[in-house]
Write a structure and sequence with these properties.
This protein is an alpha/beta fold and 300 residues long. The protein has helices at residues 21-35, 56-62, 65-87, 102-109, 134-142, 170-186, 208-213, 217-233, 249-256, 280-288; strands spanning 11-14, 39-45, 93-99, 115-119, 147-150, 162-165, 190-196, 240-246, 262-266, 293-296.
């Protein structure tokens, strides 16, 4: 079922109207204002709403709980839009309450949107749990374009570098291009990181030959620099560093996210299987990162 709104050329942010979701809306509004593009705030309404106990009386009085819920949601969406306009007077802000499953609505919006933004966890997630909420997890897995996941457990560093995970995959190429654009637009350094880890099977006798055949780190860094160079050349004056580290990729990127303004990763790395919706490194980074994470996909 197609969505009813047009997301073309807009930054789309999903909200469940919780205080936690306001972080995602604020981040998306700041980004949209800086790039002079429209912001669209989306709330997905359940097709068959079930009144909470606190709203049973209203449902009984109105006789139309679905209409009551939609009207109440639209009013709260306008409050969010008003706050965004107050902080960014030149920003064009739209709102929509769309009937359907939140993850499906936002994944469909990602076909045309410049970027889809979601909070890492829903309103009911325990404060100490870092696992992605169901909506964020599904949106990232099924999106057709870049998705930003805004954590609520990190310490934002707006002036920090943009960190990007780099390997020799098409998904990494897309991540690197977006990260360079981000860093150049915001006037912050780009920090490109390639992490490699020794596979468990290499530790046994059969792995000795494979270990000995691995290229030296210096050659590996040269290869990563070759990948980064043309992208950086498209952004004159962009300050950047290239790092090659021996570590599990997800751990290295999560560590680098501390003090970063953004972390950009591909949906699948070099070792990802064809057809895999989301690689293990991306999943772990989304769970552990200390800053907003943007997940990109290779161009089809």
């Amino acid at each position: 079922m197609p969505i009813s709104f047009n997301a073309t050329g807009k930054i789309v942010v999903g909200t469940d109207l919780s205080g936690r979701a306001q972080e995602a809306v604020a981040w998306a509004a700041h980004r949209a204002a800086a790039r002079k593009v429209p912001l669209l705030i989306v709330l997905a309404l359940p097709e068959v709403p079930i009144p909470r106990r606190s709203r049973l009386f209203d449902a009984m009085v109105t006789g139309d709980y679905h209409g009551y819920l939609a009207g109440n949601a639209k009013a709260k969406l306008e409050e969010l839009a008003a706050k965004a306009r107050e902080l960014h007077p030149e920003l064009e802000v739209e709102t929509v309450a769309e009937e359907g499953l939140g993850s499906y609505v936002l994944a469909q919006a990602s076909k045309k949107a410049l970027l889809v933004v979601v909070g890492a966890r829903g309103a009911n997630a325990p404060a100490k749990v870092r696992a992605l909420g169901g909506t964020a997890d599904a949106v990232v897995a099924h999106a057709h374009g870049p998705v930003a996941v805004i954590t609520d457990h990190g310490s934002p560093t707006p002036d920090g570098p943009v960190v990007v995970g780099v390997d020799d995959s098409p998904e990494s190429d897309a991540a690197l291009a977006l990260a360079a654009d981000e860093a150049a637009a915001r006037g912050v350094p780009l920090r490109a990181i390639h992490a490699w880890d020794v596979a468990p099977w290499m530790m046994g006798p059969m792995g000795v030959t494979a270990m000995q055949s691995l290229p030296p780190v210096s050659r590996l860094k040269e290869r990563i620099e070759e990948i980064v160079a043309p992208v950086v050349a498209d952004h004159p004056g962009l300050e950047h560093t290239v790092e090659v580290v021996e570590a599990r990729p997800s751990a290295a990127l999560a560590e680098a996210s501390v003090g970063a303004s953004e972390l950009v990763v591909g949906s699948r790395g070099l070792g990802g299987f064809t057809g895999l919706l989301l690689g293990s490194t991306s999943k772990e980074v989304l769970r552990d990162a200390d800053c907003p994470v943007i997940v990109t996909r290779a161009k089809e």
